[in-house]
Amino acid sequence: LQKLPVHMGLVVTEEEPSYADMASLVVWCMAVGISYVSVYDHNGIFKRNNSRLMDEILKQQQELLGQDCSKYTVEFANQDKADQVLNCQSTLKVLSPEDGKADIVKAAQNFCQLVAQQQRTYTDLDVNVLDNLLSSTNGFPDPDLVLKFGPVDSTLGFLPWHIRLTEIVSLPSHLNISYEDFFSALHHYAACEQRWGK
């Protein structure tokens, strides 16, 4: 592949998320060298049960990578450990709708408080300032590629601010997904020409 995404989003729009299939996707991301992975479902099921997802990822690591398993580390990122996780080979963030629009609202409120306290002026607001105020992807770059699984033609609130330049590939389902489907999506990303509005 000519290029790999640095940050990949895995967005499930299906009603019944599969821990085993999502774990396979995360392990494949680790194995090909993707540094940051975000998992999102619009009901927040993975986020509420992230220990179950992590157990499944560790199990899949053992099964799929065998003895090479120790070369691939993954860690859940959260606000408390944001500075620690950047040293890991792959960092996983599990997101839900509260990390999308609600995070933008919270960032706007924080900026307004800074203006009210005269620590900032309204003219200070720009893309970089807003990026720094957003906590849902603290320490993460914007996603380069999002794999959206399911019949819904929407990302259902997945990081609306961060995906303005993201390539989005739709796949019918994450259930029983094959490595060939995953690799095909990566191949599509590697072949796309991103012009960033030019």
UniProtKB/TrEMBL annotation:
<comment type="pathway">
    <text>Protein modification; protein glycosylation.</text>
</comment>
<keyword id="KW-0256">Endoplasmic reticulum</keyword>
<dbReference type="InterPro" id="IPR038887">
    <property type="entry name" value="Nus1/NgBR"/>
</dbReference>
<dbReference type="GO" id="GO:0005789">
    <property type="term" value="C:endoplasmic reticulum membrane"/>
</dbReference>
<dbReference type="GO" id="GO:0045547">
    <property type="term" value="F:ditrans,polycis-polyprenyl diphosphate synthase [(2E,6E)-farnesyl diphosphate specific] activity"/>
</dbReference>
<keyword id="KW-0812">Transmembrane</keyword>
<keyword id="KW-0217">Developmental protein</keyword>
<dbReference type="GO" id="GO:0006629">
    <property type="term" value="P:lipid metabolic process"/>
</dbReference>
<keyword id="KW-0460">Magnesium</keyword>
<keyword id="KW-0808">Transferase</keyword>
<comment type="function">
    <text>With DHDDS, forms the dehydrodolichyl diphosphate synthase (DDS) complex, an essential component of the dolichol monophosphate (Dol-P) biosynthetic machinery. Both subunits contribute to enzymatic activity, i.e. condensation of multiple copies of isopentenyl pyrophosphate (IPP) to farnesyl pyrophosphate (FPP) to produce dehydrodolichyl diphosphate (Dedol-PP), a precursor of dolichol phosphate which is utilized as a sugar carrier in protein glycosylation in the endoplasmic reticulum (ER). Synthesizes long-chain polyprenols, mostly of C95 and C100 chain length.</text>
</comment>
<keyword id="KW-0443">Lipid metabolism</keyword>
<dbReference type="Pfam" id="PF01255">
    <property type="entry name" value="Prenyltransf"/>
</dbReference>
<keyword id="KW-0221">Differentiation</keyword>
<dbReference type="GO" id="GO:0032383">
    <property type="term" value="P:regulation of intracellular cholesterol transport"/>
</dbReference>
<comment type="pathway">
    <text>Lipid metabolism.</text>
</comment>
<keyword id="KW-0472">Membrane</keyword>
<dbReference type="GO" id="GO:0001525">
    <property type="term" value="P:angiogenesis"/>
</dbReference>
<keyword id="KW-0037">Angiogenesis</keyword>
<protein>
    <recommendedName>
        <fullName>Dehydrodolichyl diphosphate synthase complex subunit NUS1</fullName>
        <ecNumber>2.5.1.87</ecNumber>
    </recommendedName>
</protein>
<keyword id="KW-0325">Glycoprotein</keyword>
<keyword id="KW-1133">Transmembrane helix</keyword>
<comment type="subunit">
    <text>The active dehydrodolichyl diphosphate synthase complex is a heterotetramer composed of a dimer of heterodimer of DHDDS and NUS1. Interacts with NPC2.</text>
</comment>
<dbReference type="InterPro" id="IPR001441">
    <property type="entry name" value="UPP_synth-like"/>
</dbReference>
<dbReference type="GO" id="GO:1904423">
    <property type="term" value="C:dehydrodolichyl diphosphate synthase complex"/>
</dbReference>
<comment type="similarity">
    <text>Belongs to the UPP synthase family.</text>
</comment>
<keyword id="KW-0675">Receptor</keyword>
<dbReference type="GO" id="GO:0030154">
    <property type="term" value="P:cell differentiation"/>
</dbReference>
<dbReference type="InterPro" id="IPR036424">
    <property type="entry name" value="UPP_synth-like_sf"/>
</dbReference>
